[in-house]
Amino acid sequence: MKTIRILASLLLGTMVFQSHAQQQLSLSDAIKFALQNKKEAKKAKLDLENSQYQIDEVRGSALPQITANGSLKHNVLIPEMAIEFGDQIITAKMGQAWNSSAMVSLNQQLFNQSIFTGLRAAKTTKEFYQINAQLTDEQVIEKVANAYYDIYQEHLKLQTIENNLQSTTKTKEVTEGLVKAGLAKKIDLDRLVVNVNNLEAQRQQTSSAVQIKENALKFAIGKSIEEDIELSNETFEINPVLAMESDNIENRTEVQLMKKQIELYDLNKKSKVADLYPKLSLGADFGFNGFGKGFPIGGNFNWPKTSSIGLNLSVPIFTGGTTKARINQADIQIRQAQVDLEDTKLGLSLAKENAKSQIKISLLTIDNNRRNVKLAKGVLDDTKNNFNNGLATLTELLDAERALADAENNLNTSLLNYKVAEVQIIKSNGELKSLIKE
């Protein structure tokens, strides 16, 4: 393994920052902050917490259900009933002026396939949200890592512009002296002034781009936009072994999540099938049915007791085919999810192969660009020396400076491409949390 150490200078004098102290932020710190503060991570944790309440809700339906009911009724007009007695019809009042009841009832499910299936579904739902929370964390880590490395590329680009500006400014100062001494043309000085102005404009544009991308990173980790951050110096480790990693698609979080979703769809189908099963429950109650001519309290009132216990059986016989239709719909849902799973596996395999190819290309490009930077620096040093001795033209000097800047930018781009591909390889191995340093 070979290591390329890249020390990105923040160039505070060239960037628009507020005067208060800045906080150094490593990639690991940024990820930790995002996992604690980003909306997606917070909501995933709340979904996981809520899944336990869903389990409690279904479990509660399998436990005894006890209710208490009471009523008080005043019959303003007591209903009468006609009774035929021989040749005469006699009317009699039915009931009393006041009626009251107080009852405690118990219902216990003895056999209800829907409840049993619901309990399994609730537990599977919790497992689903556990995997979903893990996937959400991985997605947050991926976004933060890419945003973090993107800022570094802009910093390195800014450093290249700054170096080029410093070199061109020195050349301009030397040329000013030569023009005053009559040893150089004013047009050469004017070209250098234009070049310096262009570089200063590029520096300002890149500084603004850095600020915009830093704001994007703040948003990605859930940090206030008003707070300033300063990226810590990072070491970019180049690991050629990553390109040789074998596929392990079955353990990907996305695959595990979809498999768990299929389990939920299967349980949903079983819940539809449960509608074909009979339901048996135990019911019991105890209470008082009171009646009297006066108000229950302080009046002429009787409180006879009442109690009952029994079994309730419900057997579905014919539903017009609606239950079968629901079962078939649930089965289609399962088959659709299985198709999605196979397509997802194919997409994940493609993404990993592309990342491995990008790793290989980046390794070759980085090595080539490092040699180009070294060569371009040598060419620029020789051209500067020749220019100062009148053996090279200004055009040759500016071309050499531009060639070095292009070589450095190409190196920075190849490094970023490598890190982005590296994140994808680490993700495909389910090891994104390895980016978090303790």
UniProtKB/TrEMBL annotation:
GO-annotated molecular function: efflux transmembrane transporter activity; porin activity
Coiled-coil segments on the chain, per record: 189-216
Highest taxon above the source species: Bacteria
Keyword terms: Cell outer membrane, Coiled coil, Membrane, Signal, Transmembrane, Transmembrane beta strand, Transport
Cellular-component GO terms for this entry: cell outer membrane; efflux pump complex
Pfam families: OEP
Signal peptide: 1-21
Subcellular localization: Cell outer membrane
SUPFAM superfamilies recorded: Outer membrane efflux proteins (OEP)
Family: Belongs to the outer membrane factor (OMF) (TC 1.B.17) family.
Protein name: Outer membrane protein TolC
